[in-house]
Design a protein that fits this description.
With 226 residues, this protein is of the alpha/beta class. It has helices at residues 10-22, 33-42, 59-68, 85-93, 106-121, 153-163, 172-179, 190-201, and strands at 2-6, 26-30, 47-51, 76-80, 98-101, 128-130, 133-136, 141-144, 147-149, 211-214, 218-221. Strand 4 (76-80), helix 4 and strand 5 (98-101) form a beta-alpha-beta unit. The radius of gyration is 18 Å and the shape is elongated. The two termini are 25 Å apart. The relative contact order is 0.12.
Length: 226
């Protein structure tokens, strides 16, 4: 999933970014409210993580402006040192979906991210199941036809993106926007290469049962929705 982190504490931002990328997420970073708001309103993120104490433009104002844009219903996690009830209420009323007080454990951050991504995708299930394939985002495990499947972090992220949208044809541009971040060196055939690897590991090299090719359109996991 593609996440935008807006945090001006460089040390904390590096820790959070490393943890999220290790989970296979594509991550973009911003250190001030103006730049963060621009990115939030111009790119298709699956989740925003916003610090309230930002320079240039406050985190609360970023929340308000994102929510005022009717096209953005992206889940938002607030991270802040402000721990009073009033601050929490203000953040939630401004558009946050969840609130995490600093200092926090990385494990809790990742758990809240998983919960918000499930909510944002419309899936309440902790384990995704499509056909014979099961994917557990929390444990980073995949099983197909009852057998464990070993995937690289990027392969896992790509498969998760497909499985959160079963039966939906996803174009190459959509896949790149959600699975690869700006830091990535993207080759023209990178998606095709990763799809072939996943199919092979799922025992479906021809793509007849898992990731289906829709020529001129993209890929979808499972049969298309009517």
């Amino acid at each position: 999933m593609r996440i935008l982190l807006i945090e001006d504490n460089e040390k904390l931002a590096r820790i959070m970014a490393t943890a999220l990328r290790e989970q296979g997420h594509a991550l973009d970073r911003s250190s001030d409210g103006v730049d963060g708001l621009h990115l939030a309103l111009s790119e298709p993120y699956d989740l925003l993580i916003v610090d309230l104490g930002l320079p240039e433009l406050s985190g609360l104002e970023v929340l308000r402006r994102v929510r005022a844009d009717g096209t953005r219903d992206v889940p938002i996690l607030v991270v802040t040192a402000r721990d009073s009830v009033e601050d929490r209420v203000r953040g939630l009323d401004s558009g946050a979906d969840d609130y995490l007080v600093k200092p926090f454990a990385v494990a809790e951050l990742l758990a809240r991210v998983r919960a918000l991504l499930r909510r944002g995708s419309g899936s309440a299930d902790a384990v995704l199941k499509v056909g014979e394939t099961e994917l557990d985002p929390a444990r980073r495990r995949v099983r197909h036809a009852g057998e464990p499947v070993e995937l690289s972090p990027r392969e896992f992220s790509l498969l998760e993106y497909f499985m959160r949208r079963p039966g939906v044809v996803l174009s190459r541009s959509m896949i790149l926007e959600h699975v690869w971040d700006y830091r990535s060196e993207i080759l023209s055939n990178v998606i095709d290469v990763h799809v072939r690897r996943i199919r092979k590991k799922l025992g479906d090299p021809a793509g007849e049962r898992t990731i289906l090719t829709r020529r001129g359109m993209g890929y979808c996991f499972g049969q298309e929705e009517p």
